[in-house]
User: Fold this.
Amino acid sequence: MSASAMLGPVTTGRPARARTHRRPRSRILLVLLALVAVAAVVGVAVVVVPMLRPAGPRPLFQMPVACGETWQLSTYPGHDDYDVDFFPVEGETWGRPVLASYAGTVTVAGVNGSLGGRTPENPEGPRGRGGGYWVKIDHGGTWETQYLHLLEPPLVEVGQKVAQGEQIGKLGSTGNSGAPHLHYEQRRGWEKVETYFDGEPSGITTDEREQILRRVSNNCPAGS
Ligand SMILES: [Zn+2]
Assistant:
């Protein structure tokens, strides 16, 4: 039989359905399935599609600490590639202002894991799990920054717009933290990337060995 013959008028020969005998239960099931399908499509559209967009240009991130201060940036075996721990070189560590690296919208402001009990009054208190009090900021173009182990509940809330240099929390030791410090990450899309500050890479790209370096923050008010 030729292809054109197959494309001729089609009759299925299927008898007309006796719709009156269809049970309502199957209709409810179909509606539920349709709702689930719609929810799945919306979920993919809202969560996955934005992550698949090509990344925008790297924002001009600044160190998450006060303008002009020198801080130690470090990592250690078992940390995670690209993760950076910040310790001040001078002055009190507890409660130091933690600043937004760049303008953006807060997407997380809460507790990761558990807080534990490490405070300025009891620095060797029980260790928590995970990041403790933490903040995540969306900078657009799939770029994000994360700030962990804050001392107290973050000073910002989800959905809030923050400016570069705005204080988002205080440095602490909540979560799985050995000593007061700020654990910091920059992410592009799904993955962590090497941290850049003031347009310069930090050089911390692996946790295969301990690394300690010093940098001066240029997270300064505009126009200064
Ligand atoms: Zn860390």
